[in-house]
């Protein structure tokens, strides 16, 4: 479980030898990650009650798995330091390991955040998807004397892709067998069109003035109601209270109405092969309208599990009658449904390569304030005139067109090579889940 000869994140080597990357059936990304972190292969036989962990993890197009056909979900609750991010990394790998098999395929989408980068242990296998409407700045921040420095994101991860809108993301960039880190588009490009084509009707609008977390409602909606449907998709949403906060109100951004839209989409997700796995610090952080739709739950170490149905919104029965989790060590939890529970469920350590934090800043090309756009235009005019005066030419500087897109196939995927960007083709992975967990 160690990283050798890695002093900074740009020392990481992209894992391009896997079958997932090369388009062959052997040595998948999930296998590569498991070997790197010494994570054993998934063993369903260790679980006494298959409808708990195996029922949530293993997906199928029919009822051949341990739960109904289609996607699944859970909400995991635990205090800071309980190991939520590590659990999410391991669960991501298990999803890729278990659900990419003959007749079945699945992709994992991790919610990227400009303030956090807990996914970095999987950077050598990761496909990072960024909005084409923004310029991207990546920095490595360290607590030692190295300080902060700018880096090319392509030097840290295996692949970087740029999507136009939520539909383009899933149609052309998210691919089965891969681990994707997706950063939301603050411009909300294409989100309103996704909503207008869906069967739900609320008085709401997506615009570039929206809080950026609203983009995730449109993204899940796009996959559920626009596809593609030939492979499943699992969303890993850390800090899910940011996306569906309990305090959402009927404000100028229709925040409450978008909670209702997320709820309706969440309820339909299973039928379309979509799973949503959320993590948060407290059960009160995310909205009760969505809680009522959750089928699996996880209580992490360091917090007491419920013992009565009245303690949990949307639950008719709690199978635990005593506190099992308050005194558990880091890296253990109880996973439960209304009928059964798995205790203790454990996962291993997935360490970061270095102590650095990867910060990604997205800068919209089109300012939200028209006055800013006018000022930028005037500045460009002055620069053009200055350049013309200096060179003696009257044409001004040439500009590369962002519409200059060359489509190229690589393993059945489409990659957009833009005039001002460097796009590569690659795949991502995850790691392995459940280092233990018999049921009680």
UniProtKB/TrEMBL annotation:
Region (Disordered) residue spans: 362-440
Q: Which GO MF terms are attached to this record?
A: ATP binding
Question: Keyword Nucleotide-binding, does the record have it?
Answer: yes
Q: Which domain of life is it from?
A: Archaea
Give UniProt keywords alphabetically. ATP-binding, Nucleotide-binding
Record's compositionally biased regions (Basic and acidic residues): 362-388
State the name under which the record lists this protein: ATP-binding protein
Species classification = Archaea, Methanobacteriati, Methanobacteriota, Stenosarchaea group, Halobacteria
């Amino acid at each position: 479980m160690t990283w050798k000869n890695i002093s900074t994140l740009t020392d990481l080597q992209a894992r391009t030898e896997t079958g997932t990357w090369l388009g062959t059936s052997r040595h998948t990304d999930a296998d590569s990650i498991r070997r790197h972190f010494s994570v054993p292969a998934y063993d369903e036989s260790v679980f006494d009650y298959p409808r708990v962990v195996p029922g949530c993890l293993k997906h199928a197009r029919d009822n051949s798995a341990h739960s109904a056909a289609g996607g699944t979900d859970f909400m995991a609750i635990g205090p800071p330091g309980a190991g939520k991010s590590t659990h999410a990394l391991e669960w991501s790998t298990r999803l890729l390991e278990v659900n990419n098999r003959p007749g079945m395929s699945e992709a994992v989408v991790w919610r990227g955040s400009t303030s956090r980068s807990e996914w970095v242990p999987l950077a050598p296998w990761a496909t990072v998807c960024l909005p084409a409407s923004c310029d991207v700045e990546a920095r490595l921040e360290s607590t030692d004397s190295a300080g902060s420095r700018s880096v090319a994101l392509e030097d840290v991860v295996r692949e970087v892709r740029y999507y136009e809108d939520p539909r383009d993301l899933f149609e052309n960039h998210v691919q089965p067998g891969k681990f994707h880190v997706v950063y939301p588009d603050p411009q909300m490009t294409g989100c309103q069109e996704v909503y207008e084509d869906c069967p739900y009707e609320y008085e709401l609008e997506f615009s570039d003035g929206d809080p950026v977390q609203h983009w995730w409602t449109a993204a899940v909606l796009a996959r559920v109601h626009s596809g593609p449907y030939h492979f499943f998709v699992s969303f890993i949403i850390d800090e899910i209270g940011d996306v569906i906060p309990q305090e959402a109100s009927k404000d100028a951004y229709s925040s409450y109405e978008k909670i209702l839209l997320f709820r309706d989409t969440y309820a339909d997700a299973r039928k379309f092969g979509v799973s949503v796995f959320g993590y948060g610090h407290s059960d009160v952080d995310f909205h009760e309208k969505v809680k009522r739709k959750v089928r699996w739950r996880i209580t992490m170490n360091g917090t007491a599990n419920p013992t009565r149905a009245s303690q949990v919104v949307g639950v008719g029965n709690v199978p635990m009658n005593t506190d099992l989790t308050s005194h558990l060590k880091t890296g253990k939890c109880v996973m439960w449904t209304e009928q059964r529970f798995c205790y203790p469920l454990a996962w291993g350590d997935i360490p970061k390569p270095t102590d650095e934090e990867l910060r990604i800043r997205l800068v919209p090309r089109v300012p939200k304030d028209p006055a800013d756009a006018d000022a930028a235009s005037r500045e460009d005019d002055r620069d053009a005139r200055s350049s013309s005066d200096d060179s003696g030419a009257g044409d001004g500087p040439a500009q590369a067109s962002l519409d200059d897109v060359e489509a190229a196939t690589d393993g059945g995927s489409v990659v957009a090579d833009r005039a001002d960007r460097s796009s590569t083709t690659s795949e991502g992975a995850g790691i392995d889940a459940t280092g233990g967990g018999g049921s009680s």
